[in-house]
Structures are given as C-alpha cells and as structure tokens.
Amino acid sequence: MRKCMAGMLAAAMCVTLLAGAGEAEAKTVKPKLSKKKLELTAGSGKTLKVTKAKGAKVTWKSSSKKTAAVKKSGKYSCKVTGKKTGKAVITCKVKGKKTYSLKCNVTVKKKAGGKKNTSPAVTPTANVTAPTQTPPALSQGTQAPGTQTNKPNMPNTPVPAEDGSIRKAYEDIFPNMGSCVNYGAGQQLQDAKTLSFVKKHFNSITLENEMKPDAILGKAADPLTKEEALALGYVVPDSYTEEVIPRLKFETIDQVLKIAHDNGLKVRAHTLVWHSQTPGWFFTEDYADKTNTTPEIMDARLEFYIRSVMKHVMEKEKELAGEAGSIVYTWDVVNEYLHRMSWGHIWDSVYGNKGMEPSYVKKAFQLAYDMVKQYGVQDKVTLCYNDYDTYFNIDDVVALIDFINAGEDAKICNGIGMQSHVDITRPTLDEYEAALDRFMATGLEIQITELDITINFDHEGETWQYKDKHETDEDQAAFVKDFMRLVVRKQRERDVKVSPKGITGVTIWGLYDTISWRAPSSPLLFKDSIDSPKPSFQEFLNAAE
Hints:
This protein is an alpha/beta fold. It folds into two domains: 32-109, Immunoglobulin-like (Sandwich); 166-542, TIM Barrel, CATH 3.20.20. It has 14 helices and 21 strands. The protein has helices at 2-26, 166-170, 192-201, 213-217, 226-231, 251-262, 295-321, 340-343, 348-351, 359-374, 394-405, 429-441, 473-493, 535-542, and strands at residues 32-33, 37-41, 45-51, 57-62, 68-74, 77-82, 86-95, 99-109, 176-181, 204-207, 223-224, 245-246, 266-274, 328-335, 382-387, 415-418, 421-423, 445-454, 457-458, 465-466, 503-508. The strands form five sheets. It has an eight-stranded parallel barrel with strand order 9-10-13-14-15-16-18-21, surrounded by five helices. A four-stranded antiparallel beta sheet has the order 1-3-6-5, with no helix packed on it. It has a four-stranded mixed beta sheet with strand order 2-8-7-4, with no helix packed on it. A hairpin with a 2-residue loop joins strand 5 and strand 6 (77-82). The longest helix is centred in the middle third of the chain and has 27 residues, at 295-321.
C-alpha cells in the first residue's frame, strides 16, 4: 500500500512539474522591435532596438542599402540611416532556441528644400517613336514584343521608389537575376526610367525577340556575294557552295551590347536554333524558291549562321570590354526541339524527323562549342538547351542532352534552360522539385529562363486560354512565395559534389503584366507599369530570406 501511495505521490509531482513547465513555456515572449515603422529624412538616422532577445544572436539587413543603410550599434540594436528618397525594409533575425524574423518598414523622405532624386540620363542611339502593338493570341511558341508606355529619350526621370531590389535580395543565392526586355519594341532599353528600373532589380537581360533568327535574317533574304560577306566579317565555311549569302542584321544587337556594357548588365543570348521565328526562306533553294534545300546545304548554312553570329558578338565584346565572353554569359543554342511538332517542324522539313537523335541539334552545339573554345571562353560561357514544360518531360530532356554530349571530349551542352511558364495550379511544386532534383543530378548548370506565373488560365485541351476562375493577385503572391522558396531551398541544400553550380540564375519573362505575351493572365510582379508592384513582388523578395 505504501509503495502504491508513494507511486501515486510521485506521479502527482510529475504532473505538477510538467504543468509548471508548460506554463513557463507558454509565458515565453517573442522578441519585438522597438519600432515597426520609421520615417527618416535623407542623411538622418535613428536607432532600432530588439527587446526580449537576451542570449540570442541578432543580425540586421536592409532590403535597399541605397535607400536606408543599417549598421549594428549594440548587441541588440542598430542604427538606420536614410540615404535617398524611397522605401526599404529592415529585417532583424533573432536566432536562439527559435529563429524569428522581424521587420520594420522605413520611409526616407527628401530634406526640406532639397533636390529630387533623379535617375542618370541615358543618351539613346536612336530617337524613334514607340510602336503600339497588340499582344498575340496565347500561343506557347510565340513571344510577342512588349510595348512601353513611357516616352523615349526622357532624361532625368525619377526612379520609382519600390521596396527593395530583386537583384540585391538574391545576390548571395543566384549570380544572375534577369528580365526579358526589348530595344526597339517599346524602347525599354532606350528609356532612362526603364533602364534605371532594370539596373535596380536585375544584372542580366534577355532580348525577348531581337536575337532570334528572324530578327537577324529578316523577313526576306538580302543577298550578298561571298566577297561582300567576307568583307563584313562573316564566317563562310568551305562546305558553303552557294553563290548567294544572306545579309545578317546586327545593328540592334550592337546597340544592346553597348548599353549592357555601359550599365553593368550581362546578356543571355536567345536563341540560335529554333523552329519558330526562323524565316521559311532560310530553308529553301537559293533562299527564294518554294522547294526545300538539301540536308548538306542546310548543314553549311547552319555553320555559316552560328559561326558568323557568335563571332560578331564576341568581337563586339572585345571592342567594348577588351575580351570575349565579358557580356554574353549564356547562349541558348537550341530552343524547344522537343516541342517542335506542336508548333511547326520547319527543320524537320529538311532533315526529316530524327526523333531523339537530331543531327542538326548536335551539330549546332558542336559549332557553338568550337566558337567559344576558339575565343578561349569555354569555361566562362554556358551553352544551353532551352525548353518549356521541362518538368513534364524530364527523361526526354536528359536523353536529348546525353545524345548531344555523347562522344565529345567535353560537355558541349553544359546548361539546361528551364522555361518556367507556369500557373499557380500547374505544375505542382512537387513536380517542379522532381525536375530540379533530376537536372541537378546530371551535374549540368541550371537556369530558370522564362519565369512567369499566371492566374485564371485554362490548361485543358489543346489550346491554352484565359478563363476567369476568380483567382486573385493575392493567390498569385502566395504561390510566388512558395515557388521561390522551393527554388532557393534546392539551391542551398544541393550536393555541391554532384551539382557544383546548381541553379545559376532566374530570368523573369517581362517587366509588367500589360506588355507580357500572357497579359490576360497577369503573370508578372508588376501590373500595368514599372510603378505598380503587385503583392507577388514583395513575396518574391521575401522568399530570398
């Protein structure tokens, strides 16, 4: 009986102790910031403290150092100094038994009587009026050039004060954060305000359409003699037996390379070989007949085109920056081969359907690799196979790249471009993660190349189209946060022995919704101008933490 009583007393004491522990735990108070909002004038500073953080490690970070700088001033405090007009978010991370992320929104106002902050003036090379263009029907294979509502050639235009910078938020995670832009259509790169916006948020650009074959070759052949072609610096291989050589149009590319060089931007070259946006005349007899030419003649034309385009770009880089590979860091050598049958098969009309062993695809990579090797930048410049829906075609992507690299002394295709034209319902995050895992296992570099995230988009049937499913900007923002957190996690947690580089960049496909090729489905981080950030913009920034 005594033993029983003793046991009961012991059990009661344990319950009491546990209850006490639970109460103590319940009384644990989360750390707090002394201010959730701060208002400063440019040049002034205020102290921000975190309370109830005893024993924890405290770090501070500003989303925009150029707007509000932060400097630790004590174990649990920092000094926030206003730099220029705008907004920033100060993040305080408190690491103890638990980790807390606390935020303070900072608004920096100009000094009384001070001058307005202005963006640097840009001297454009051409003064033309931006055309008005209507977005095309939503077809996966055609990316339409966007339009820009800002007037061109506007010096000293104030830069909008967004919270944070995409480039800065991700600079320690991905070396390249980019957007697709245009030079002629909308004059995005010729507009001072837009260029300042691009520089603020990105360090990489991809021309939406102006490096594609139809932009370089033109709507109709402009014939040259061999002597004229050689005088222009074109590469004419011995296998090229035709008397006529088409003129290549490099004017826009040259202007973009100069803008990129002058403004500290890198370029993804998109694209050399594609079944879409390649003029039909390039495949016909004498560049004029309605009859398709032979595979042998097409091989010579392919060599002429790839070598001439890459030579021109790398020589221009040497002229601007002193060395090749200094501006263009990636070439999309072949685009969407696996989906050529869905959108036309112009290459197959010459070569036939070669399935998973297309000779011209392998030849394109061989030629591209020869060029980067010739200029000594093979370890500096990435050669990508780029395609959409890669997360639904994982095995085919890997098999195609294995075919390209088979029997070669080096990986002549060393990058996978994951076009990510996704929807908040398609693919699932699990499907996207499975693709990243498989592609990382190859050891190849991965680039997320054409990111946009739609809402109210119908994927049923053969034709994708807008369909009001009552999905909101907030729904998009929630998915953006989860999607980018997944991408960040996979990059941070990868096995570097297997995937040394992992994901080396993310390119957002456009600046804002109304100029997107998928405009009706609101796919981007800004709504109808660069001055109108959506909730997804802030969540895109938050995902980097």
